[in-house]
Automatic annotation (TrEMBL):
Keywords: Methyltransferase, Transferase. One of its GO terms (molecular function) is methyltransferase activity. One of its GO terms (biological process) is methylation. It comes from the Bacteria. It holds the Pfam family Methyltransf_14. InterPro entries: Methyltransf_Zn-bd_dom_put, Methyltransf_Zn-bd_dom_put_sf, MeTrfase_14, SAM-dependent_MTases_sf. This is Class I SAM-dependent methyltransferase. Residues 217-371 form the C-methyltransferase domain. Residues 8-62 form the Methyltransferase putative zinc binding domain.
Amino acid sequence: MVIASPACRSCHRTDGDIVLDLGAQPSSELFPKIDDPGPDELYPLRMWLCANCGLAQLADDADVPEEVVGSEPAALTAQRADAVRELAAAGAFPAGGRAAEFPSPHGGSWLPLLADHGFTATPYAAAAEQGGAELVVDGCFGVMHEPDQDAALRERAAAVAPGGRLVVQFHSLHAIVSGAQWNALRLGHYAYYSTPAMITMLERVGFTVATARRFPLYGGTVALVAGRTSESPAVDAAAVDAVVAPELAAGMLRRSAVGALQHSVQRTAGSLREMLVAQRAAGRRVYGYAAASRAVSLLRLADLDAGLLAGVADASPGKQDRRMPGTDIPIITPQELVAAQPDVVLVFVSELVGEARAALPEIERHGGTWVDAGAGR
Ligand SMILES: [Zn+2]
């Protein structure tokens, strides 16, 4: 349902603005069976920016089904290792103890990496009752899936033992805006954090950010390490400012700057459709690669069907015999993609271009071309 006047999921205030409106969209998590003709249920998909605390968030609540866990790009695995190594080297972690990790529907875990730094895994759900964990981690984009952002951060904060640290890692709003990644906006992803907004949210639950790092994943992924404000944690102000200052300069708390996302929507979707119409007219066959959540709104806004995009290949077994939500475009296996001998393969997840090329050399051997059709283009 469309909520006429949203209230902030973090600070509960009601002053704010719609900064991005993608209209009515199907769930990007439920890939219908290929023999289910639809129509698929549609939900409003809008980003609202709180004028009080600066948190960008989904304006509306939609009860979307559980997502199908896809195969994780190697870039995510590599980034986790980078994050743990850099933060450990900077002395941002306590000297071992218990580590509690809040899970993510995207999968992935910091726990095996943290074991090398003296941390023993403890269940996150029981951590608060058992005196807390020295390190509490939300490192795999978990907290953005929580409709009640304030409650979610309080739960994470409560799991931290005295003297412990809380790590939160997120895809930065700055990367989304500067990279025109408007299709990062998705049902089920309730919050889109700028670093200043996340710092404010952590302060509200009694935590002070001690250090920050920015990584290139997704155009900008930020990891923050925070300690209890009442314990006066040592703060690496230079490291925090290095991440915060560019975001403030880019206007990440202002609706005019964040609202620039809206202008990129028709440009991206319109040019994708024009390109596919031209390819079809030239008798060339175009397929997609990666039946990713972020491709769903793009395919709908570009008004694509199987006549323009013959199929989208995906390696995940859970997505086979299904179709792209809101369209008749089938999801196929990588083997079927190779057998189709496509002229062009559009890769909807930029992080996957390299590994897709390497895994399917037959595409280029048969004269096909890989094209990066990820966000921001
Ligand atoms: Zn707010």
